[in-house]
Amino acid sequence: MLDGTEPVLDVADLRTVFRTRDGGVYAVNGVSFSIAPGEVLGVVGESGSGKSVTMMSLMGLLPSPPAEVTGGRVLYQGRDVRTMRKAELRRIRGGEIGFVFQDPMTSLNPVFTVGFQLMEPLRAHLRLSKAKARARAAELLRLVGIPDPEARLDDYPHQFSGGMRQRVMIAMALSCDPKVLIADEPTTALDVTIQAQIVELMRDLRAKLGTGIIWITHDLDLVAEIADRVMVMYAGQVVEHGPVGALFADPQHPYTRALLATRPGVGGPRRRRLRVIEGQPPRLGAPPAACPFAPRCRHVFNRCRVENPPRMPVGEGHDVACWWDPETDFPRREPADA
Amino acid sequence: MLSAARAARQPLLSVSGLRMHFPIFKGLLRRQVGTVKAVDDVGFDIARGEVLGLVGESGCGKSTTGRAILRLYDITSGRIELEGEDIAPLSGAALRAVRPRMQMIFQDPQASLNPRMTVGSIIAEPLDEHLRPSRAERRARVFELMDAVGLARGFANRYPHEFSGGQRQRIGIARALALNPAFIVCDEPIAALDVSIQAQVVNLLEDLRAAFGLTYLFISHDLSMVRHLADRVAVMYLGKIVEIAPREALYRFPLHPYTEALISAVPEAGGRRRARIVLRGDVPSPLRPPSGCAFRTRCPKVFDRCHVETPPLTDLGRGRRAACHLVGRPPA
């Protein structure tokens, strides 16, 4: 979907550090990506790879201190979010850019009715009257497939099931017709049957409203189904990025390949043994000077231990940050210096 | 005394008519206002060395089934035969005597390991409880177990918080193995772990099964992992088994509409091989289950009979059983 459409969100070289008593933790180290209207970008990686922190940083949602966004540019519809005034940022956040978090029980306030919480952004961002906000809130609940929406507005979050609560969160994120929806593991806590419902719902919404969706997950199988493009993160960096078809058919980074091999499927031939990725992601006390995956990599070269590979193009819209070339098993040739 | 041939044919575990009902109390006088039939007439066999997968959505009763079999509850009714002995009516010292033969691996290693005990003493606790070993024996056995699950011996004096999720799960597994059990209930053992760690723990469970001839009841909502690990799979819905079949048969050719929908809902990276069936609505409240077939409120193939008559779990041959009006044959 990158056929000349202007990106609605364009992020370049984003960097975030957590300043702690034990020194800095470099969580995001130069992340760049963009998303076009109506496009779904899947973001995958292990816990601690910086997926969530990246998304929180670009909207200034991390508490500071300890978090500090130390560099990068975040353009929303051509305007730099990082230099925006607070009031303008607030207008965009929760309005034009919606968020859905993993755990709906901790993101919904238990002491207010679902209706009240749905109406709040409508009144704050769209300045709707109480009656109009209520009507719109009911419409939103109907949109996400909650039966008897008028009556359910007066219910409290605990009166909804897990899947319903997640749908309420999505309704809330969609309330002001967002241009971008950032969904952080929105279905991880849910059963597969409910996940399938949410996936259908999101597909529908992106078709109807042209919302650009950033879907963070650790489930590669899910990404294969929902995403147009995929971004694989490791140690706060993008290690591979590309169209979903190319990335799954021809994964380039050893980390992407390993992630794909750790999962058995419900179809296809059954593997005798699951591939494991030995070791753990690094805790980054400094920005990585060498390839952060080198200690766990089975294709490591000497160069990987001294020089962090840049993102190099390997195909149409497909790039990888790795010195190993899976085709030749030799080091990859660097793109000619610009 | 059983003959060797008979012992080989006898299932390690045979469960029949298992019911676990929880009363619901309400109001000032705590009057009983209803019953949740968390497990309602569940039965299956597991052969020695076999892995039975138990799948279903949250709240379907799969964990309660596992806990009831290990007699962590006083069950409402049913038979639980472990190596030919019915352990359902046992209590007190008699129950305690069979506990070493059956163990459990829990979902959350964080919550199931005492933070104030060292790894060594956590693993040794079942030994202290049941065998009263000498100090040297105890130490030797703890090291043996740590070797088996791939934990360095030097960790014995450390505390659980110093370990990652995958390592903590190894500690839990070592503890479960301490008394040489024949049967282990694995209750969502990988659900709380990161993807890259899940594969390590699953491989370890397979290695241990081969090395010690273990039999597992593997409870999980992860259908791909169950397909990888289990020999046969049982599918639960609202407290009942709706289908049970050998692994490949179940995944290739599910007979119950619920099994079909469940498998079709799992995302597949290698391209979709079957049409997705999106179920409408949520699981009904177990306090007020629907009349007739419990699945009828979400079933895409529902017809008149499903509203009034509960389909029994019917033997369909070739190791397959399903509870659906559509799959049985009309009486001759």
UniProtKB/TrEMBL annotation, chain A:
<dbReference type="GO" id="GO:0055085">
    <property type="term" value="P:transmembrane transport"/>
</dbReference>
<dbReference type="Pfam" id="PF00005">
    <property type="entry name" value="ABC_tran"/>
</dbReference>
<dbReference type="InterPro" id="IPR017871">
    <property type="entry name" value="ABC_transporter-like_CS"/>
</dbReference>
<keyword id="KW-0067">ATP-binding</keyword>
<dbReference type="InterPro" id="IPR003593">
    <property type="entry name" value="AAA+_ATPase"/>
</dbReference>
<dbReference type="InterPro" id="IPR003439">
    <property type="entry name" value="ABC_transporter-like_ATP-bd"/>
</dbReference>
<dbReference type="GO" id="GO:0016887">
    <property type="term" value="F:ATP hydrolysis activity"/>
</dbReference>
<dbReference type="GO" id="GO:0005886">
    <property type="term" value="C:plasma membrane"/>
</dbReference>
<dbReference type="InterPro" id="IPR013563">
    <property type="entry name" value="Oligopep_ABC_C"/>
</dbReference>
<keyword id="KW-0472">Membrane</keyword>
<dbReference type="InterPro" id="IPR027417">
    <property type="entry name" value="P-loop_NTPase"/>
</dbReference>
<protein>
    <submittedName>
        <fullName>ABC transporter ATP-binding protein</fullName>
    </submittedName>
</protein>
<dbReference type="GO" id="GO:0005524">
    <property type="term" value="F:ATP binding"/>
</dbReference>
<feature type="domain" description="ABC transporter">
    <location>
        <begin position="12"/>
        <end position="260"/>
    </location>
</feature>
<keyword id="KW-1003">Cell membrane</keyword>
<keyword id="KW-0813">Transport</keyword>
<dbReference type="GO" id="GO:0015833">
    <property type="term" value="P:peptide transport"/>
</dbReference>
<comment type="similarity">
    <text>Belongs to the ABC transporter superfamily.</text>
</comment>
<dbReference type="InterPro" id="IPR050388">
    <property type="entry name" value="ABC_Ni/Peptide_Import"/>
</dbReference>
<keyword id="KW-0547">Nucleotide-binding</keyword>
<dbReference type="Pfam" id="PF08352">
    <property type="entry name" value="oligo_HPY"/>
</dbReference>
Automatic annotation (TrEMBL), chain B:
<feature type="domain" description="ABC transporter">
    <location>
        <begin position="23"/>
        <end position="263"/>
    </location>
</feature>
<keyword id="KW-0813">Transport</keyword>
<dbReference type="GO" id="GO:0005524">
    <property type="term" value="F:ATP binding"/>
</dbReference>
<dbReference type="InterPro" id="IPR003439">
    <property type="entry name" value="ABC_transporter-like_ATP-bd"/>
</dbReference>
<dbReference type="InterPro" id="IPR027417">
    <property type="entry name" value="P-loop_NTPase"/>
</dbReference>
<dbReference type="GO" id="GO:0016887">
    <property type="term" value="F:ATP hydrolysis activity"/>
</dbReference>
<dbReference type="InterPro" id="IPR013563">
    <property type="entry name" value="Oligopep_ABC_C"/>
</dbReference>
<dbReference type="InterPro" id="IPR050319">
    <property type="entry name" value="ABC_transp_ATP-bind"/>
</dbReference>
<dbReference type="InterPro" id="IPR003593">
    <property type="entry name" value="AAA+_ATPase"/>
</dbReference>
<dbReference type="GO" id="GO:0005886">
    <property type="term" value="C:plasma membrane"/>
</dbReference>
<dbReference type="GO" id="GO:0015833">
    <property type="term" value="P:peptide transport"/>
</dbReference>
<comment type="similarity">
    <text>Belongs to the ABC transporter superfamily.</text>
</comment>
<dbReference type="InterPro" id="IPR017871">
    <property type="entry name" value="ABC_transporter-like_CS"/>
</dbReference>
<protein>
    <submittedName>
        <fullName>ATP-binding cassette domain-containing protein</fullName>
    </submittedName>
</protein>
<dbReference type="Pfam" id="PF08352">
    <property type="entry name" value="oligo_HPY"/>
</dbReference>
<keyword id="KW-0547">Nucleotide-binding</keyword>
<dbReference type="Pfam" id="PF00005">
    <property type="entry name" value="ABC_tran"/>
</dbReference>
<dbReference type="GO" id="GO:0055085">
    <property type="term" value="P:transmembrane transport"/>
</dbReference>
<keyword id="KW-0067">ATP-binding</keyword>
